[in-house]
Design a protein that fits this description.
Two copies of one chain form a homodimer. The model of chain A has no long low-confidence stretch (mean pLDDT about 90). Chain A contains eleven helices and five strands. Chain A has two domains: about 5-175, Transcription factor LuxR-like, autoinducer-binding domain (Beta-Lactamase); about 185-240, Winged helix-like DNA-binding domain superfamily/Winged helix DNA-binding domain (Arc Repressor Mutant, subunit A, Orthogonal Bundle). By secondary structure, the first copy, chain A, is of the alpha+beta class. A five-stranded antiparallel β-sheet of chain A has the order 2-1-5-4-3. Chain A binds a DNA duplex through helix 8 and helix 10.
Chain lengths: ~250, ~250
DNA sequence: ACGAAAATCCCAAGTTCTTAGGAGAGGGCT
DNA sequence: AGCCCTCTCCTAAGAACTTGGGATTTTCGT
């Protein structure tokens, strides 16, 4: 008898081979949804967590959750408090919604947020965290009424999730190439900004670098302009995003 | 008879399951190298292509190529002209070194660069491109003397490559995180901080969240205290470090 | 040697943050 | 019920940042 384990293994590799050659976004989505059904998942969300100044929907790569659920979720801004999402601050390894229920002492409100999913066929699900070197975090999250959450299924889902994200990004890469380009900072601007990020005031930085406070301010202002920021805080965020300063 | 196809499928899922639970960088590396040997690959390089102003070695996550080869490669700055690498400008799908030989009309110099690998047990290999939504591109590149380059092996390598990169990045992030402890922020504090990081003033944030400006200021101050910061800019940096807000 | 880009410095009014207090309402836990 | 935490709101002076100008000297590549 072929075990279920090997069945999943073969399915998964087949899946990868199948969508590996697809270049059309919609076709890839169809394949993903179909594959997930075999595991008992009825809907899926793939998104990058919104960073400062980004819309929730910006990072949404694929979302087949019921429309009303998504709208409701966005409207309530659940992404900042849904315990299933905030669990990402503790771990970068895959987990299920019920894992969160068990691990954390949830407040009534938090439990309610998870339970709300049941009304939309999203009773139980998985979160597959996907990290990048630039520290942005994406998740692949399939869910359903009674999905298979066995270890073998999880491993398969992890592959499917990571690979799906790859395939989707790949299909979009041409479209996204019109990326934000920024004017590169000068050495001095970077240096000053690094101190700003460290929480120093312009006076302190002037001291450190042995230059006038005016000069420091001026460097910061130039950097802000180049990074398209009106405030220092956002300039720092942008600088980190663009790799101009490191954490 | 069990086909080779299914053998690879099972191996691959086993591999994923095995390293999925590992958190130590070195252990993960060992598993990867061992798994690659089963396919005939004797060494592997995983790196992010250097952007402007970046050192070649900055994005090197894992490299088991012979030391002399790496040094030689870096010294000659081959990364900017090696046809195997520049092929990435044309495709985001996996390919082998011999694919490049066939596809392109290589100049003598370019051919020589590829051939040089033979002296170091790197005669033939694969490039698995891994894309991110920001412009950066990573590659997973195993090579050897006579590796298996069948379609099924390539699919398996794609999974192994993408997954290995995940596992390695994950282990690095988790390590950094557990280093530092901080008082967790409340939901509201996080929400406010996210807007601060987006470059909004307290007045604007008050408007957005429909609360008093005083309240916003107060949340920011509490967050600053918890994050051990005297300035907003540093508070933002800390919040990102601690994963309280995402990039 | 020339020009472009970077780095340095200056002013000054207006806005925003910082700091260090206090205080009430409501939820959750024991 | 009593306690702790969160969220809300408040004051007010002084420090820091923002904005939009301008000017001079260095540095660096061609």
């Amino acid at each position: 008898m072929q075990s279920k384990m090997d069945h999943y293994a073969k399915r998964t590799l087949d899946f990868v081979e199948r969508i590996g050659s697809l270049t059309d976004y919609d076709e890839i989505c169809r394949e993903i949804v179909e594959e997930l059904e075999a595991f008992g998942f009825t809907s899926v969300t793939t998104m990058t967590l919104p960073g400062p100044g980004e819309e929730f929907a910006d990072g949404m790569l694929l979302n087949t959750r019921p429309r009303e659920y998504t709208d409701h979720y966005i409207e309530k801004n659940y992404v900042v408090r849904d315990p299933v999402v905030t669990e990402l601050r503790h771990t970068v390894y895959p987990y299920s919604w019920s894992d969160v229920r068990e691990r954390r002492d949830l407040s009534k409100e938090d439990s309610r947020i998870i339970d709300e999913g049941s009304e939309f066929d999203a009773r139980e699900g998985l979160i597959i965290p996907i990290v990048t070197l630039s520290r942005s975090m994406s998740i692949f999250s399939p869910c359903g009424r009674e999905p298979d959450l066995s270890q073998r299924a999880r491993s398969a889902m992890e592959i499917i999730g990571i690979y799906s994200l790859q395939a989707l990004k790949r299909s979009l890469i041409q479209r996204k190439r019109t990326d934000i380009v920024h004017t590169p900072l000068t050495v001095r601007e970077r240096e000053v900004l690094q101190w700003v990020a460290a929480g120093k005031s312009d006076d302190e930085i002037a001291d450190i670098l042995s230059i006038a406070t005016c000069t420091v301010t001026s460097h910061v202002e130039n950097a802000k302009m180049k990074l398209d920021a009106f405030k220092r805080t956002y300039a720092i965020v942008q600088a980190i995003r663009f790799g101009e300063i490191s954490l």
